[in-house]
Structure formats: structure tokens, C-alpha cells
Amino acid sequence: MKRPVRLEAGQKLVLTANRLLDGRTVWWSAEGTWVPHIGHALLLDAEEAQVQLAHATEQAQHDGVVGVYDTAVQDSVPPEPVTVREKIRAHGPTVHPEFAVETAQ
Amino acid sequence: MSVPVGHYQYDRIDRDFLQARIAEFEGQVKRRLDGTLSEDEFKPLRLMNGLYLQLHAYMLRVAIPYGILDSRQLRKLGQIARRYDRDYGHFTTRQNIQFNWIRLEDTPDILRELAEVDMHAIQTSGNCIRNVTADEYAGAAADELVDPRVHAEILRQWSTLHPEFTFLPRKFKIAISGSPNDRVAARFHDIGILARPGEDGAPVFRIFVGGGLGRTPVIGEELFDSVREEHLLATLEAILRVYNAHGRRDNIYKARIKILVQAIGVEAYREAVEAELGQMDLEQYRLTPEAVEAIRARFAVPLLEAPDDADAVLTQQRRDDPLFDRWVRSNTHVHRDPGHIIATISLKPAGGIPGDATSAQIERLADLADAYSFGEIRITHLQNVVLGHVRKDRLRDLWLGLSEVGLAEANIGLIGDIVACPGLDYCALANARSIPIAQKLGARFADTALQAEIGALRINISGCINACGHHHAGHIGLLGVDKRGEEFFQLTVGGRAENGAAIGTILGAALPEDETVDAIARVVDCYLGRRESGETFLDTLTRLGHEPFREAAYEAV
Amino acid sequence: MKLFELGERTAQVHNVLVTVAELADRDDVRAVLLESADDPALLRPYLNRLDLVVLRFPIFRDGRGFTQARELREYLRFSGEIRAEGHILPDQAAFLRRCGVDSVVLPKNGNGDPGLWEKQLRQFPMAYQRSVLPERGIGPGLRVEEAP
Fold first, then answer.
1. Could you name the CATH architecture of C3-146?
2. What pTM value is reported for the model?
């Protein structure tokens, strides 16, 4: 069911998932670990993302995460997801600012 | 403890059953963590224990069978919100409560805490028979013919871990009412049941099948007009058996019973059910009067005593206090006892999140239920709370108590009483956020005098086609859609879930989020400008057709 | 192939297992494989000579096998062995048994641990609805427990 990724100019891909134990949104970092802040996410080109995605999916059980996929972000510091859905996953529900996830660097 | 008013009293056997269920789930979690169970295998098992994986965390949906709780149970929900969640809970359109910030590893402990007060999360999700819903005024309303809760409890028990119907093609929702005024949206359920008294004193049941909202909204069709009580379970078994054997399993969007009923026609479905009944050993499935009475005996009945002048006291208080009077007008319903009244507490403060309640509010509601309504609380499918048996001369005190915790909003059945699903702020299935648009609409129509002037007008908002916000059934319905990552809303008008159930008509192309509230305001203005004396929004819509409203909605676009 | 018995009946081993369509031409066959889309009523002419009906679960979420088993027991009065095979979970053990299934082909992965199946059979001491098993009521309500 993998859609072909079409990145626009200035966009990259990041890998994301939810942690199995607490369900928290996590992002694939340069250290090869899953981290809760999108600011630490590893930015990937389309081809790199394919490789990393296959690897991360295979390792999901070992790494304690569920539902690994990639999503497009603006190549900025910190990276900002393109879709509303992923923005909300990255930052928390818009209706509860007190629960916002910090975009730590 | 004493027998609770309004719901079934558990005994040791029921409690042992819950403990066994928790132990089972704990084992499943362990197998998931060690990898013996894959996520694909674990997911249906956790869903049947109410546990979803959403955008930010797990979500636990706790069952409130037929929407009724006692104060002890409600306090426990408040404690769980405080201890395991973020200090609030969300009441749903199926009379349940869900917590949005749950950890998988905490869930067995939460289920154990729930079991302490005879609660659980069994079959609040999954492709099985879901928590059965019932009339929120059951056992209290003056217009009721049969109190549906005893039979709702029978259905709850019968459907719990049913060996044959736990892996259905898709979810299966049953609602039951005993009033001629449909308050359960009977014709928008997989099975809708309307009870009425039979000639021998036992109730008979009119059964609708194949209704539903979601991707393909369908109004349920009558399968049987008069099913006798003794054959109620046999009939439901037969309906489910036909569905389990023949419902589609190749396409999740065509797997509900409504698609099967539509495909073969209700006559053919009835024939198939009758063929099953013809082969079944009906004695084996017979619901005996003894069984019904045994379950009825576990329900306590409130002792309704009120002073003779209770009604006069209320009348005087309403005269003295216009604000109170406005709340009474919108938020109460006639009780079968002349000294009592049914109070609906709005969980729709202007600009607030529909159906959300904080731990403090939840606990306060439990106190008020103890003080004013025999410790009994009902959750409505419109995401509000009902105290069913309030003495008329004490209603104002209740209202004052509600005011202290911001729960005295006078908007039941009015435009501020918005129904909304959690939407994209939480839900993994959603395409758009439902809550912010509900908040903006609530703020736009915050003035309760204006709301009273507009009159009966129900807005329902769903963040995706699965229609948890029942947008097809809203007088004005909003469906959130995703257009290249941006939120848009499709408007429908003319839906209704009450008697004369209808599916709303789509007005036109979906509007950008920031234009939607204005468009709805113009639709409301159109109604106010063109209504004739005494007409509700639906009346005017019926008289004029939807064209003027379409023009109003798209005027500025 | 490892078999697990859900009840008292001893599981039988059959070398020849045919489809419903093949039954008509094979007088010698005593065991048939029912796919989840097959109508159990098709077995009616052959029930007297069948010792074993195997229900294949393509995936554990496909619950048609439960209805098939009940139909075999309740409508067709089949008294031979019913077995489930394919993608099934130990979590389904009691459901299978209560619908009339006698044995399962244990999955070859972690779900095939007989200890898990054994445990699940004893997980719930009672049920809220009758099944095809011999049961007695617990008091006058709906609750039943298995008759000894």
C-alpha cells in the first residue's frame, strides 16, 4: 500500500511511529533511535527513506514501536510536517495548548 | 452496598468474570510485548477491551452500559482521569467515556480499578456486538411505555463474549428504546429495537435492521413488527447468524449489515432469518419470564416522594428568576411522576469541547447525583448528562450547584448543543479537526437568548467519513475532509435521528475551514429571515427546500 | 501437524481430506475440509459417513467458522469431530469449543503453545449465553456453567 513519495522543493522525509508501551508519537533520529521530539528527527531523501523505512519496520518489535511510516516535512530547523495530521502528531492536540510537545533541538 | 438505582447490580460471579477478563488481557499484553502476538493479532484483541492506538497515545473507551452509572462509578472515572490521564474524560455519542492519554502498560491496572466499581471496557470497540445503548430518559420519562433497561442489560449479558459473534465482518451496534418518541436513533443502528407493552403484560419488540451512518448512511428497515419477549434472543441470534455467514469480508467499507440488507433486500433478509429460526431449537434460546425477572430484581427502583407543593414551588421559582427559567425550558423533560422532573446537564459550554468533563466536574456531578437523583447518572448519545429523578422543588438548588462548576449552560437541543467526535486532534482515522470548529460555532452562538430565539437546531460534526459525530443525522451536519493536507468541511442540512429519521442532503462543495462558521451563520440567518410563526429550522427547510440555504451558504464564496 | 483437543473427544488422524466438491466422487472418504465461504448444509447428504469436518480459518478475524460449527452441531446434528485449522489464536479456544469444535491444528508459531490453549479453555468459569455444550444455569438469569 506504499504510495510513491513526491517531495516538493524544500521538503524531506522523516520516519515516525508510536511507542508500543505508551503509544507516544516518536521520530527516527540520526542516532538510529526513536525520539519524542521532531526536532531530533533525521531528514531523508526519498531513496534513503526507503532503505531506512525497511530497516526500521523490520526492527519495530525490537525497538518497541508500532506502525512505522514516512512523512514529508519542510526542510527547516526544526523540521515542520507538511500535513495537518502530522503537525498535530508532532506538536500535540491544537485544542489543549498545555499539552503541546516541545520542539526541542 | 445497596442496590444501585437504574442499572444491574453485580454479584460475585459477575465480578469473577471481570477479573478473568482482566487476567486474559494482561496475558495478551505480555504476549504482544514478547512478540508472540503480532500487532495485527493483538489489535483486535485490545480493541475488544476498548483500547485504541491514536495519534498521541492509547485511548481507552470505557463501557457505560445503556448509558447509566452510579455516583460511585462516576467518581472512579474521575479518579482514573486524574491518575492515569490528563484530568479529563470525553463522553461519546454511544454513551461511553473515553480517556485520551492512556499507556498500554497501565491498562490492566486501570481495568482493575474499573472492576472495583463493576465497570469494564469490554466490547467498546472491535468487530463484535458493541455496548448496547438505550433511551437516556429510561424509567423516568412520562412518554415511556416500557423501561428498556432490563432488556438492555439482557442484551449486554447475552452479547458479552458471545462465542459465535465475536469475530463479525464489522462492528455491530444495538440500541433499544421503550418510548414512542425515538431518543436512541433506532433507525441508525445495525439493530434498533423499540419495545412496547404486549397483551399479556410482557413487552413486544419492533425490530429495525441495517441502519447506520458512516460512509454509506442508511435508514434501518423494519424486520419484524412484534417479536415476543421469549423470542427476543432467538431472533437476534438468527439476525446475527445470517450476517456472520453472509456479510462481506472482502471490503471493510462494505462489511456492515446495512450493505448486506441493501444487497439482498429486507424481504430476503427476513426470509433468511426465518429460515434460521425454523432450524433453531427455540427452547434453547427462550428468554424465560423467570430470567427476565431475575435480572429485573437486580435493579433498584427509586422511591419517588415529593411534597404536594413541589410543582408550585418550581413554578414560583421560574417566575422569580428568568435565567433559571430559561435553563428549565431548554434543559428539562417531563417526568412520569408529577413531583419530579428530568434534568439534562449540558457538557457544551460556549467555546468548550463538546462532551469533555474535567475530573473535578465529574466528581461534582457524582455529588449532585447523590444529592438530587438517587446517585444515578445517565450519559446521553448527544454527549450530555442526565439526572433522571429530580424533585421539582429542589431543581433550583441543583441548578445553583451546577452553576458553581460551569455546568449550567441552557442550551439542550439548541444550536450550542453541538455533537462532535474527537477529530484530528486525537483520532488516527480523522481527516479534519472537529473540536475547533465546534468551539468556534459555540462561541459564535454563545448568547443563550439568541440560541433560544433560533430554537431547535442540532449541529453534528464528524472529522471523517466514519461519522462518529453523526453528521448525517444533524439538522446541520459538518463532515471534515482532507484536501491535500488542508481541512475542508462539507455541509449537509435536513438530517434527523428522531422519529421520521432522515439523512441530511449535501449542500455543495466542501468549504475551507475558515469559511465554514460564516457559512453556517448565513444558513441560520436565512432560516431566521424566512421562517413563519412557530416554525423550527427543519420546518422551514421542509417548506422551502434546501436551495435557499445552499445559496446562503455559498453567497460569499 | 500437532493437534490439540479442546474437549473430551480424541482427535482422529485422517490421511485423506477432500473438499466438499470432491465428496460426491469419493465414497471412501471420511473427512472433509470446509472453507470459510462453504455452506455447511452442502454436507447434509454425506454426514452419516463423515468422521471429521475440518474448518479452515483464512485469518483469525474471519468468524464464519464459528457459525459453521454451530450449524453443523445444531442444524445438521453432526456428531463426528469438528476441527479448526489455519490462522487461529489460543484466545479463541473457548469460543471454538462452545460452538462445537473438538480440536485444533496448533499454529506453528508462538500461538501454537498448548499451554496457552489449555489456559484459555479455563479462563472463564461461566458464560452469559448458552452454547452447544451441555450446560446448566447459574440461578435463574442468563448465566451458565458447563455441566460436569
1. 3-Layer(aba) Sandwich (3.40)
2. 0.96
